[in-house]
Amino acid sequence: MAQTTKRSINELLVSLFNHVMDMEGRAVITEEYRDITNNDMHIIEAIGVEEPRNMSVIAHRLSVTVSTLTINMNGLEKKGYIRRERSSEDKRVVYVILTEKGRKAFYHHRDFHKKMIRAIVKDLSEEETEILYRCLVNLNGFLESEAGEK
Predict the structure, then answer these.
(1) Of 41, 57, 84, 126, which has the highest C-beta tally within 10 A?
(2) Beta strands 82-86 and 94-98, pairing class
(3) What is the pTM of this model?
(4) What is the spatial distance between Cα 26 and Cα 1, in angstroms, rounded to a whole number?
(5) What does the pLDDT look like over 54-108, one tens digit per residue?
(6) How far apart are CA 51 and CA 32, in angstroms?
(7) CB-based contacts of 11: which residues, under 8 Å, 6+ apart?
(8) Is the dihedral of CA 8, 10, 16, 18 positive or negative?
(9) Segment (H or E) for 9
(10) Rg of the Cα atoms in the chain
């Protein structure tokens, strides 16, 4: 691959990252959700709407420490997006559950990502979509390995 192509890929990745972060912030943090940050929205996404998750699982999904996450959870709980429940089997375990307000925020955030994915793959064939997927898996693997080395 030519050096100019590699440079162009790098510039495109940097530009995409910046655009996604900026656009997501504007699309997701609307008037209704002005009391939380984009980071809070990603925590809500990590909590999810399936079964309740404990703090360790959520922290792992976000690649942060439980103590870092606790600070954010306190704010989300105060604002009515989450509630915490002790496990009936093991009182040491605390589960985090989205409230109705939190579930609404979750679906709002998810809808933004669905629109983004539709826009990305709309003109791609099945084969091209698979190639894009493999490229993103490779990129993610690189980023995870670099993060693990620090």
Answers:
(1) 41
(2) antiparallel
(3) 0.79
(4) 36
(5) 999 999 999 899 998 999 999 999 999 999 999 888 888 889 999 999 999 999 9
(6) 26
(7) none
(8) negative
(9) helix 3-28
(10) 18
